[in-house]
Amino acid sequence: MKNPSDVQIKQLLDTKKRIAVVGLSDNPDRTSYMVSEAMQRAGYTIIPVNPNTDVVLGEKSYASLKDIEGTVDMVNVFRRSEYLPDIAKETVEQGIDSFWAQLGVVNEEAYHYLKEHGVETVMDRCIKVEHAKFK
User: Fold this and answer.
1) Which residues contact 105 (CB under 8 A, 6 or more apart)?
2) Across residues 83-96, what is the average pLDDT?
3) Where are the alpha helices (DSSP H) in the chain?
4) What is the CATH number of the domain that holds 56?
5) How many domains does the chain have?
6) 11: which residues sit within 8 A by CB, 6+ positions away?
7) What is the rounded average pLDDT of the residues 96-104?
8) Residue 104 and residue 120: Cα distance in Å, rounded?
9) Has residue 33 been placed in a domain?
10) By C-alpha distance, which of 103, 102, 53 is closest to 74?
């Protein structure tokens, strides 16, 4: 697995403004909430994907990527690594061309599947930390 260069990551963050966050918790103490809130404050549209919540960060929550209305620029994943292959398949099925798995989340099978389908893929990186590097 090889992540994009810093230049490519900066370009992703500069152009992908509507982010579906898979596994976004409505608990303000959870990392997914804190990271997504920071990205929302930075001007990104956050789309919660969690079948167990109705609203997170003031946004309607969806049960899955296929239920989201409108376009999605990037999928950001806060689920355990073993869930990545299924989320990768759903990402490709929905025609989303950017996939980000948070710090500590890596799956080689999902990575290769995404790359085979032309999806820009970042794994084992925190989107908030990466965003802060380019401010």
Assistant:
1) 77, 78, 79, 80, 81, 84, 123, 124
2) 98
3) 6-15, 31-41, 84-93, 108-116, 127-133
4) 3.40.50.720
5) 1
6) none
7) 97
8) 18
9) yes
10) 102
